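Minutes, project huddle
Topic: does the predicted pose make sense with S-adenosylmethionine bound?
PN asked that the exact inputs be recorded in the minutes so nobody has to dig through chat later. Recorded below.
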Amino acid sequence: MYNPKSLKAEEFIDDAEIQATLAYAEENKHNRELIESILEKAAPRKTGRGTECAGLTHREASVLLACDIPELTEKMFRLANDIKQAFYGNRIVMFAPLYLSNYCVNQCVYCPYHYQNKSIPRKKLTQEEVKQEVIALQDMGHKRLAIESGEDPVNNPIEYILECIHTIYSIKHKNGAIRRVNVNIAATTVENYRKLHEAGIGTYILFQETYHKKSYEALHPAGPKHNYAYHTEAMDRAMEGGIDDVGLGVLFGLEMYKYEFAGLLMHAEHLEAVHGVGPHTISVPRLRRADDIDPDTFDNGIDDEIFAKIIACIRIAVPYTGMIISTRESEQCRNRVLDLGISQISGGSRTSVGGYAGYEADERPHDTEQFDVSDQRSLDEVVKWLMDLGYIPSFCTACYREGRTGDRFMSLCKTGQILNCCHPNALMTLKEFLEDYASPATKAVGEKLIREELEKIPNEKARRLAKEYIENIHLGKRDFRF
Ligand code: SAM
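Predicted holo structure (tokens), as shared on screen:
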């Protein structure tokens, strides 16, 4: 029986409720009146506290996703863009993945790290190698990482992950620092989540892969990840362990996208109902070619148009949740969806274990790679590209370091303080990037952008302080924040 407040996976991701949602969406996909009223409900509104959005239920959002009337789809895209502008403005947060180990005891049939793959070399970074990787990432200009690891209690126990986090935070190379480490490791116990929380992680990210239980079990035929309930209930354990910011995602291409979409939103509703705060981020990975993985053998691939619509509908349904897109996607695809709700992208990424240190910007090792990277540009190129498109690449990590996690971050969003806070923080961290790491062409574009954007800070005191801090960054000081 469907119950968003239940702590049981099969009750908050209830298959019958998803089937009923899909039937309702199909029945109403040409119901203009209903669709217009859903779009109206989701539109940003000025209130005494700032700008607010009501969001949508999984049923309402599923109707939007099912609707195939071109003019209404265009309206959805415009609304997604309005919501994005209202809460995230033109800032795009930058990050990079850091692969620690590809030892894995699971048998995910879509992932080349699966246990039975004997052709892929297995590698686990030593602490000295972690240090070299982090120096290489800092020298590119990164401040925020997502660490990635296979699941293997012998080779990659929680103690190993904690040691790596400690090493990452301890390295300060030249002006570099990693100020936020997000963690993407397999579902674990409350006790281990508490240890991760105490180690100072940012977001705990875990992709559901698929919400469809039967498919999930078939796609994970053996190993600890086979257990659907344990995996699906992981975010509740993470929150119980003290982690406020959790990141959801499904791997698009495994199951029917409409099913996944409804499941994803039900998961968000569940977190809100039980913990009073929804997911901090939602990722939208699509299946990619990899060592012994051929994405064409999976039946549920989605094209770029549907992908864009999914992103727009997520943006409309959960307006305050950050949305992440990785270098699995091409430059062209990333360009299209930035406007529709994406707030965070990776740049200069390597998906192999030890892929950064000792390699030139245009050189990439493929032997231990998790999947083919589609967008292969360097971080400097991605930063310049974003600025040429009118976005502000941001290396900001201030919210987490100021304790603005969970509902405190959401309330910053809702009260419209973002322009006085996130906006200057983005400009200051971009300035650090320009001073320390940018090519002359990127620097020229960035300096002009910063001058123009500083004038848009509404609060006079914040504007004056931001200008002062930026001058100080030019003089060699670092790490200012609001
Ligand atoms: N091992 C951890 C787990 O099981 O959750 C997480 C780390 S794994 C390196 C990160 C994610 O990569 C997985 O959750 C999966 O969604 C994604 N992934 C695996 N194989 C992929 C492929 N062939 N193409 C695209 N993404 C893939």
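Observations noted during the meeting:
- The first strand starts at residue 45 and ends at 47.
- The chain is about 45% helix and 10% strand.
No decisions taken; revisit at the next huddle.
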